[in-house]
Amino acid sequence: MSAAAPAATPELTPVERQSVARTLKNPRLLKTEVLAGLVVALALIPEAIAFSIIAGVDPRLGLFASFTMAVSIAFLGGRPAMISAATGAVALVIAPLVASHGVDYFIAAVILGGIFQVILGVTGVARLMRFIPRSVMVGFVNALAILIFLSQVPELMNVPWLVYPMVAVGLLIVFGLPRLTQVVPAPLVAIVVLTVFAVLANVLVPTVGDKGELPESLPSLFFPNVPLTLETLQIIAPFALALAAVGLLESLMTAKLVDDITDTRSNKTRESWGQGAANIITGFFGGMGGCAMIGQTMINVKASGARTRISTFLAGIFLLILVVALGDIVALIPMAALVAVMIFVAIATFDWHSIQPSTLKRMPRSETTVMLATVVITVWTHNLAIGVGVGVLVAMVAFARRVAHFVTVERTESTVDGVRQATYTVNGELFFASSNDLYTQFEYATDPHRVTIDLHGSHLWDASTIAALDAITEKYRTHGTEVQVIGLNEVSTNMRERLGGTLGAGH
Length: 507
Known about the structure:
The chain has two domains: 18-355, no CATH class; 408-499, STAS domain (Transcription Regulator spoIIAA). 62% of the residues lie in helices and 8% in strands. The chain has 21 helices and six strands. The chain has helices at 14-17, 20-25, 27-55, 59-76, 88-101, 103-122, 134-152, 163-180, 186-201, 230-262, 268-284, 294-303, 309-324, 327-330, 335-349, 357-362, 365-381, 384-404, 432-438, 463-478, 490-499, and strands at 84-85, 291-292, 408-416, 419-430, 450-460, 482-486. The protein has a four-stranded mixed β-sheet. A two-stranded antiparallel ribbon has the order 1-2. Strand 4, helix 19 and strand 5 form a beta-alpha-beta unit. It is elongated, with a radius of gyration of 29 Å. Pfam families: STAS, Sulfate_transp. Keywords: Membrane, Transmembrane, Transmembrane helix. Residues 424-499 form the STAS domain. It is a multi-pass membrane protein.
């Protein structure tokens, strides 16, 4: 799908391409950012309205949230060109609170969720991203692509037949136009062409206006009318914490994906607290909160070629202008045009290389299992946090099982000064998965009365291993055997001196 992205500017490196100052001085790059922002704004409108409906709130809360999130994160975020707005993940997490306690508690939870995100950001939660394996990341990307595609299926059901050829024409434009010219983003051309056709031909097809009423005024400051009591905190805190966790996870995973696409690095810690600050601002303007949006980010970065904060900022500004000042025109955009753009995004996002037979044949079975688990759980639950969490757990179990089998125990016998003794040489990393099997590797009943356990080739990682060594020496002691443990490195020695004999037999 590389043909969809505009050609890179030869005189600038990927890092220089992210510079706002350089882009403002380069008309060609600035045009790319402006048009990308416009395309994203158009794509955000029906999504924001749909997510508002999922959350059970007025569409204006989703639209205002998309405006304030995009504008705020353009200044506060750590990943240039990433789009943050009202999202389905946040809507699903917080919808039960709207149903049970109303909009004011909902907005209060958004603000508190933002505070939690700031706290998590400044305490370094972003550093946990390095524990997410590549197979989980691939599963995350593929699951997102599937969810983006599935979210468009309702727009293709029980609709006039003309919708289908319009979507086909839209797909032809977004896939084919970049092969001819990249002067204007193909998604924008598709939206304009199909809108002009729908208006001139006066065809009756679903439009953006059918999704919900667009606001006619600017957002204003909003203070949720909730009592500032411990009871209120107990009501909103669980939802706020869930919002914070899901929002951060989706944002950091999306940022990592954009890093890979643009060959640049981003500040994940800044992105974490920036998301929190943006949610706090959004809450005080009556928005429903949000996080990074993978679909719109891919439109911005991959389909339109944007690389700076300018596109993110303009996406928010254009969104507000479109819905407030040009709402009547925006309402005429056929949903078929936006469906075509989002299907293109789904196809471009999916990692097709990961499912090629040649790739699957080379890839370890455990890696493929982790990827599939991430995809299946994410698509099944429609919750990225749960999917990634399950993927990480499966990866941990697979890793532990694999590493556990790398430990070897070799037994030798010798006679020193007429005394027979046995030596066990242990090689490998000893932790809970491997040390539990270690206990069974010794011949307690038949060994001579002097045994040496050589751990020069090992490292003790946890209390389970210390307990296993205690159990081994205690078992030998019941047989009247003297045990000597040698070869421990300094860290392992310190751990054994600190914990040895205090953990019980362990078996």
